[in-house]
Amino acid sequence: MFWCAFVVFFLALGNELHLSHATEVSVNNTENKLCLYANLMVNFSVTYEVGVNKSETVLFVLPENVTTKGSICNNTTSTLKLGFGDGHSWAVEFTKDNKTYQVDSIVFTYNLNDSSVFTNSTSNETKSVTAKPRITNVGVDTYYSCKSENVQRVESVTQTLYDVTLQAFVTNGSKSDTDTVCTADLTSTTVAPITTVTTTAAPTSTPTPTLPTPTTGNYSIAPDFNSTACLMATFGLRIGFKQGDKVETINLVPSATEVGGACGVNSSILILTSDTIDIMFTFSNDSKKFHLHALNVTVKPATGVAVVAANTNMSIWVAAVGSSYMCNKEQTLTVTETLTLYTFKLRVQPFGVEKGEFATAHECSLDDTSILIPVIVGAALAILILIVVIAYVIGRRKTYVGYQTL
Predict the structure, then answer these.
(1) Can you give the three-state secondary structure of the chain, one letter per residue?
(2) Tens-place pLDDT, residues 242-266
């Protein structure tokens, strides 16, 4: 379920974060008319060998600048092939019947000899993996639209599609104005009911129940089955989101949540997926400090459409590399105007984990009671000074009145 449920958000070549672009291409046929169109985001996570029984995971994104050499438009079959970097390509195979078309496969080819991406790789092979996404029954003369995440995991490669617009077999040389929306973006009818709290007036007969404090979950990522954790996190999580004029809340249930992600040199990700919540945390490392750089959240409520929110310009949960970040008090994180995260008993370490244990913690200001001491002392001194001033003024007035009497 997990690998078909959530996005690994966009990390650029060389592990440098670029989280705000899409790849848009148009392919023309022999008559120089548009026959294939795509505007999408694709992220790759590839694990490769760097030594005997040693491996690393690199994270990179399909760049904005790609070539379309090798793309083909025919009546019943078409291929969109995007080339990038040093010998890498991403190809989508389409087939069509009378009324619909579909994606048969996605072939990702990567060159391990490209040292700018696969640092210290012990192989110089060019490898390919084939994924079979569920993109079917797209109406002819419509484009496929899917803002939700589509994750494909094959062998040591994870591909993630997000915010996808695709049209094959374009007629009349122009992209259609009509879309076929993916199932994930439509109203869900199979998700279990959730308890909600709203900001609107509740019925007088039955008050809206208050959610309990979220259960604390323990989450970790390891490079492989034989390794200790390279990323560790523990926290309780609540999400508040808007549905029209109404604000609802939902807790993440650790026992019903699957964990995924990857550890990189400069970027690490933690992905949590349940039936109702998909969330990805992207951490950045500048060699001295780490911080939470981006959040991508999808909430699938029992009624209404899925809520998708992302913030790719964050700088919170800051701590020195080799230490952990901790905040036991409730924290409020505004992702977008429509979605807010609330964390409880948080501790996280996305880099420099040793022996599967948290390092010394950097405490958040909410937890650090030591900062209260100077505040309390300062307040006490201010009150004392105020009392002295008032006493002085009163004393002066009494002396002045006595002098006038004399």
Answers:
(1) CHHHCCCCCCCCHHHCCCCCCCEEEEEECCCCCEEEEEEEEEEEEEEEEEECCEEEEEEEECCCCCECCCCEECCCEEEEEEEECCCEEEEEEEEECCCEEEEEEEEEEEECCCCCCCCCCCCCCEEEEEECCCCCCEECCCEEEECCCEEEEECCEEEEEEEEEEEECCCCCCCCCCEEECHHHCCCCCCCCCCCCCCCCCCCCCCCCCCCCCCCEEEEECCCCCCCCCEEEEEEEEEEEEECCEEEEEECCHHHCEEEEEECCCEEEEEEECCCEEEEEEEEECCCEEEEEEEEEEECCCCCCCEEEEECCCCEEEEEECEEEEECCCEEEEEECCEEEEEEEEEEECCCCECCECCCEEECCCCCHHHHHHHHHHHHHHHHHHHHHHHHHHHHHHHHHHHHHC
(2) 888 888 999 999 999 989 888 888 8
Residue-wise pLDDT for 292-343, tens only, equals 988 988 888 877 778 888 888 889 999 999 999 999 999 999 998 899 999 9
CB 345 within 8 A of CB 216: yes
Q: Name residue, tokens 């060019």.
A: 126
Q: Which residue has the tokens 């996404």?
A: 133
Q: Which of 17, 11, 19, 8 is nearest to 312 (CA)?
A: 19
What tokens appear for 59 in the block?
């994270």
Q: Are 182 and 176 in contact, with CB atoms under 8 Å apart? A: no
Backbone angles phi, psi at 156, to 5 degrees: -100, 15
How far from chain centre, in Å, is Cα 35? 33
Q: Measured over all CA atoms, what is the biggest interatomic distance in the chain, rounded to whole angstroms?
A: 115
Cα 132 from Cα 142, distance rounded (Å) = 21
